[in-house]
Amino acid sequence: MIRIDLPVLEKDIRKLKVGDEVSLHGTIVTARDAAHKLMVEEWPKFVEPLIKNGAIYHCGPVMKKTGKSWKAVAAGPTTSIREEPYEAAVMDHYKVRLIIGKGGMGPKTLKACKDVGAVYLHAIGGAAPLLADTVVRTKAVHLLDKLGVPEAFWEFEVDGFKGIVTMDSKGKSLHANLLRQSKKKRDAIIGI
Amino acid sequence: MQKDFLELIRRASCDLPADVIRVIKQGRNAEAKGSPSRSALDDVLENCDLASRTSRPICQDTGTNIWYVHHPRSVSQAALTRDIIAATRKATKLAYLRPNAVDSITGKNSGDNTGPGAPVIHFHEWSKKSLVADLMLKGGGSENVSAQYSLPNGAIGAGRDLEGIRRSVVDAVFNAQGKGCGPGIIGVGVGGDRATSMIEAKEQLFRLVNDKNPDPVLAKLEKTLLAQCNELGIGPMGFGGSTTVLGVKIGARHRLPASFFVSIAYLCWAARRASVSIAGGRATYSQISQQAMKYKLPAVAARKGR
Ligand code: SF4
Minimal CA–CA distance to B273: which of B98, B80, B65? Predict the structure, then answer.
């Protein structure tokens, strides 16, 4: 297990490779469909200090409010590929070092990992309470009224959020690899 | 019956059935020591334990709620529907369910998991005096990778026979890769029309993962497909490895001479299902659904079930 404290230096991220298990400590920020669309259309300034040398988490959490503070009840990853059209530009503009989600992303994001110096971290799909319990504090929420709970920018302070690097800054993608390998197997099993 | 239905929803959302846990454990042990796949399944198991202990949803996507209600003649379906809807609303308030029903045209979330077509309710009248309700929560990620083939299919050389069914299932599992939160359970519906073919596939998902199809031809095909899908090497979450699917369950319906559909319903590892039997005002909960009873159950599960 490799420990990464956020914010993180580009040179430390470039050391990570496909297959590495990572635990995150520090701030990660949720952003999914509406948030990505908003970022590339408006390039809001408030986002910069949140994710520069930091992490975007593809997640629409279940949150509970007690008094003034918010608590993450269930916060597993959502499917990342939906952000493929936007992510490369977002990573480049804000210098994001980690994209966290599930299912992997495509060639544009893989190239951005190489150019910007970033990795894609695959969290365990469905492990919602487990991942929510690594959130030690909800630091803030942005655009909650405009975007709603699942789509807002949630600033989570995490301690020991686990994931596996499946796309690295050297241009390697576990998803692309497995697709190739399993395609060969499929052809053999089907007999075509 | 509202109270019993609410408890049924809670159990479905927070407790993964023991038969599913058991095959996930087997899969975990089959993965290489220190591999990402093994550690992913360790996390899955820890997550299920945590969800069960704290009555929290196993996954934040609490899915399409699919009900099968078997009822005596004396019970009104309209009244049952009202009870199910009321229980669904309450379960959403209590955060056993995430608000998950969205108006497809306006994009507005109804906020309480109800609306046209939500939840999904199937009724069956029977001659017994008791009422049995089966519930499954089927996640969206796994629904998105489900598929339907109309045979013949030239691209995979699938004809209208067992071999064609085999090819369709292997191809669908390949196409799903890790995107449906594998390892998955594969329900297959052969025949019917486009709608009933998929309904059959989903009904297959109510079976226990380690049961046996009483039809020897289908039992053999299930076994072959389980092995072959795992040979694909996609593994848990698509991390690579030998646990790509946990089970393959096949059912067939009569079709028109003109049509031959093979429907593949992919269910993520979060295979949430629960059942309640209500007789004389008393509710008994079980992890074995009425749908599963039609199949040969493993000895241990059968004893516990009743
Ligand atoms: S596919 Fe299943 S495990 Fe994955 S996020 Fe959806 S409901 Fe959860």
Answer: B65
